[in-house]
Amino acid sequence: MAYYDKTNDVRMQAKAHYYWGCVYRDMNRQAEAIREFLIAAPLTEKAKEKRQLGLIYNNIGFIYNIQDFNEKADSIYKLMEVIAQEVKDTTLWSEALSKQGSIALTKGEEYFPIAERKLSDAFGAVDSVGNNGLKANISASLSNLYSRMDEGEKALYYAKLNLSLRRDTARAYRAFLLLGDAYYKLGQYDSATFYLNKSLLSKDYGRKAGAYMRLADIAMIQGNAALSVELERNSSAYKDSLYKFRRSVVVNEIIEAETDAQAMLQKLYYKGRLNTYIYGFILITIIIVAIVLFLYRRYQRKNDLLQRDKQELEKINQNLNQHYVSLQTNIEQKNLEIEGLRKELASHQIDEEQRENLQAELDEMILKRRTLAKEAFLHSPLYTKMQAIIKDYQDRDQSDEEISDQEWQEFVVGMDIQWNNVITDLCAKYQLSKEELHLVCLSLAGFPFSHLEYLLHLSRKTLYRKKNVLLKRMGVEQNCGFEEILQRK
Asked: Quick one: pLDDT band at residue 319, thresholds 50, 70, 90?
């Protein structure tokens, strides 16, 4: 155990203290045993060995229980119950329930229903797995419970079952005491006296005190007052001896063992932390050196990388500007071609077939111009600015960028070209306000309606209201889109 305490192997530390506690328990050195179990419990929990933790809690609860630390024992058995359910261990679960039931039994008559429920659940569960030893213990507790509830028949049934399940029926002194008590409650005093006398062979002061008390009651009932007084004195003597023994153990050993366990855990904790700090310091030092070297090398290359990025960014911007200028040139060329086709269509010197061909060519030219105008807008500085404004509002609910009147005018002109000058007609026909005109153009440009409030500085509710008013003025349905309206023109 000392070897594993010097290592960082928590799992083996936990096992070493647990098994050492079991050795002390088997030697009936309960204080040393509980000290080792109390050390093993948090180590086992840290190692995530749940079933072993359940066994440790079972041992701690047992020692607390026999030393009359019933509240502590009950808390431990509740933890044990939870673990037993997690690992699906029926035997462990049954024992946790039965111990809780036995502790509830000691609290008085108002806790009898709780004790009965827990003991019955434990009996039913252990009956399915065939653990006769545990089943006998639960039967004993049920017999004791029903005896105190004055249900003699049930008490006798479980007392007999308890004895029948014991391997050594010749020295089953607790079973004899329970049988004697059950027969006493049923008024069968000869049988009660027989079994109570057999239980007196036990070396346990508690059993002797209980047996003598029942024998004293029987003697009094049978009219032998002198014998009753003598037996009651014997019972009192054993009670005093039991109290002194338990008090000595509690004060001088169990509490001291708890203190020793806490001190040992603190020692192991700080020792582990010290090792962790040492390893951490070494690791941090290595990391710092590595970071310094990395930053130094990074600093050496920083200027080159920044210069390269700057050149690449300038090249990209130059290419974008050239592409934008090229698109604008193409749009102007398409405008000239469209104007020429319109003039040719207006001429009276062409026949109907030529007119149809020219009209088809004109429609195709208008479509190409619209595509070019849309692409030009998506590559324009204004579009980039609009996207930046939207992102700013989404990230921090404000933006330092602002669209100028000149930019709005350029945007409207571009959208008018894209839609073959229909927006101009729409504006003149319905007397659109500046906000309404911008609302129409942004919608046609494909911006989500939720983004328009960032560009127009109007609430979404106001935008919906303006849109619905405008659609009503145009005489169309309120769920109709502006693109659909323009396509009808």
From this structure: low
- List Cβ neighbours of 8 (8 Å cut-off, separation of 6 or more): 272, 275
* Tokens, residue 451: 């983004």
Q: Tell me how far apart the alpha carbons of residues 28 and 459 are, in angstroms, rounded to a whole number.
A: 80
Nearest one of 99, 11, 23, 94 to 53, comparing CA atoms: 11
126 contacts: CB under 8 Å, gap ≥ 6:
90, 91, 94, 98, 134, 135, 138
18 contact partners, CB below 8 Å, separation of at least 6: 36, 37, 40, 44, 52, 55, 56
| Cα–Cα distance, 148 to 125 (Å, whole number) | 24
Single-letter amino acid code for the residue at 298: R
Question: Which alpha helices (H) appear in 149-204, and where do they start and end?
Answer: 152-164, 173-185, 189-199
Q: Which two tokens stand for residue 43?
A: 């180590």
Question: Long-range contacts for 324-328 (Cβ within 8 Å, ≥24 apart)?
Answer: 324/376, 324/379, 324/380, 324/381, 327/372, 327/375, 327/376, 327/379, 328/376
- Asked if pLDDT for residue 150 goes beyond 80, the answer is yes
pLDDT in tens, 195-233: 889 888 888 888 888 888 989 888 889 888 888 888 888
Q: What is the pLDDT of residues 165-202, one digit of tens each?
A: 888 877 888 888 889 889 988 989 999 899 889 888 88
**Are the C-beta atoms of residues 232 and 224 closer than 8 Å to each other?**
no
Q: How many CB atoms lie within 10 A of CB 192?
A: 22
Give the whole-angstrom CA distance, residue 412 versus residue 432.
Answer: 13
What distance in Å separates the CA atoms of residue 161 and residue 179, rounded to the nearest whole number? 10
* Whole-number Å distance between alpha carbons of 481 and 477: 9
**CA–CA gap between residue 181 and residue 393 (Å, rounded):** 84
Contacts 24+ apart (CB under 8 A), 296-303: none
Residue with tokens 């109570």: 196
Token pair 């590559």 in the structure block, residue:
379
Q: Minimal CA–CA distance to 80: which of 106, 67, 99, 66? A: 99
The CA-based angle 122-126-132, given to 5 degrees, is 125
CA 439-426-460 angle, to 5 degrees, is 15
Model confidence band, residue 321 (pLDDT cutoffs 50, 70, 90): low
Cβ–Cβ contacts within 10 Å for residue 454, how many?
19
Q: Quote the tokens at residue 126.
A: 């252990």
Interacting residues of 312 by C-beta distance below 8 A, sequence separation 6+: none
